[in-house]
Write a structure and sequence with these properties.
The chain is of the alpha/beta class. It is built from 15 helices and eight strands. 45% of the residues lie in helices and 11% in strands. Helix 4 packs parallel to helix 5 and helix 8 packs across helix 10. The longest helix has 21 residues. 46% of the residues are buried.
Length: 363
């Protein structure tokens, strides 16, 4: 007699998905119009998404709440076109806010900001807080502007005042000085040498995430804004491999003269302390085999991890299988109760969800 397959923790225990995207038709059309064809970031096509499919995926995989966001290339799609960037940002935020109102037990959302426009971003912060945003999703660079740039200081100051959760989502690097008339996938050939053969997101997302986090830390942006709680995707990217190098080179020769940043005098222990106090790391993608253990080797605590599916960019069917694979790998480093915290408990604490909310039990 055939024995039934065991029910995995990833299926039997509720999950909170902190890396989960929308891709409605109006946004797909705007991405296409901005030159991202046949798909964004060199992808072979646009992901398929609908509210019904997302809810079905959540039910099948025991995801009690998804924190929705816009993925790369963000909401400011056309370089230099401030008006369309602001309009699209408002449209996606209104759309996600509407989903949260319609399905309050299922959806939260990270609001987008129309960066690099500072004034409009400050206005949008106030607006989306009133709309019930659970935090903010900011691309790893805003058309070439990274987190430590003094130009972004007013945004970080306001988010610090709000004690905001900021989800840094990777995007591709931006060509310096590129003519704004060159848009979308045409820009990639200038910054992604292997994009002829590989989707740019495969490597560039990891590298740009690491570039952004390194800038956050070395520039002192994170340490000056202690009330901001950061979620870094894909288990921190290449941070375990580059952290020692970044710190040592900064210590030996400093930052370049005439630049906009002044390096914060931080030790290795200071950095790890900041990461364990202000940062969380999601497990979207393929981090289980190596990255988690490497981050633990840095000293990252077990309570700093959250589950992320990355749907629909990871298609719905495969995302469910990845959760089981992730469980198999994580059980080599985590106990069963710790794994349950990775899937739900850590995010519930971060977002201030009550136990019934985290478990998907209606009040």
């Amino acid at each position: 007699m055939t024995q039934p397959l065991p029910i995995t923790i990833s299926k039997s225990h509720p999950k909170i998905d902190t890396h989960s995207h929308i891709y409605p038709d109006f946004y797909r059309d705007a991405v296409e119009a901005a030159g991202w064809s046949p798909g964004p970031d060199g992808m072979p096509g646009h992901p398929k998404w609908s509210v019904d499919e997302h809810l079905k995926f959540m039910k099948v995989n025991n995801i009690t709440k998804s924190i929705l966001s816009i993925s790369s290339p963000g909401s400011y799609l056309i370089p230099g076109d401030t008006n369309s960037g602001i309009a699209m940002t408002r449209q996606v935020n209104n759309y996600m806010s509407g989903l949260k109102k319609q399905y309050p037990d299922k959806f939260g959302f990270f609001a987008s900001l129309p960066l690099p426009n500072i004034e409009a971003s400050l206005e949008q912060i106030d607006s989306v807080v009133e709309m019930g945003a659970d935090g903010f999703c900011i691309m790893s660079n805003a058309h070439g502007i990274y987190a430590g740039d003094p130009e972004l200081a007013p945004v970080w100051e306001k988010l610090n005042e709000k004690k905001a959760i900021v989800f840094i989502h990777p995007t591709c690097p931006c060509p310096c000085g590129m003519d704004n008339r060159i848009m979308g996938n045409e820009r990639l050939k200038h910054v992604t040498p292997l994009s002829k053969d590989f989707p740019a997101s495969m490597m560039e997302f990891i590298f740009d995430t690491t570039r952004n986090v390194s800038d956050l830390l070395i520039s002192g942006t994170a340490s000056r804004h202690k009330n901001i709680r950061w979620i870094i995707p894909h288990a921190g990217g290449a941070l375990p491999s580059l952290l020692d190098r970044v710190l040592e080179v900064t210590s030996l020769i400093g930052l370049k003269a005439g630049g906009s940043r002044i390096a914060e005098n931080l030790t290795y222990d200071d950095i790890i302390s900041i990461l364990n106090a202000q940062f969380w790391f999601d497990l979207a993608g393929f981090p289980g085999r190596n990255l988690v253990r490497q981050m633990q080797g840095l000293g990252i605590k077990k309570g700093r991890w959250t589950y992320g599916s990355d749907v629909p960019f990871t298609n719905f069917a495969f995302a469910g299988k990845l959760a089981d694979r992730l469980e198999e790998e994580l059980l080599k480093s985590f106990g069963v109760e710790e794994l349950k915290d990775v899937f739900a408990g850590n995010a519930a604490e971060l977002f201030g969800l009550k136990e019934k909310e985290a478990m998907g039990i209606e009040a």
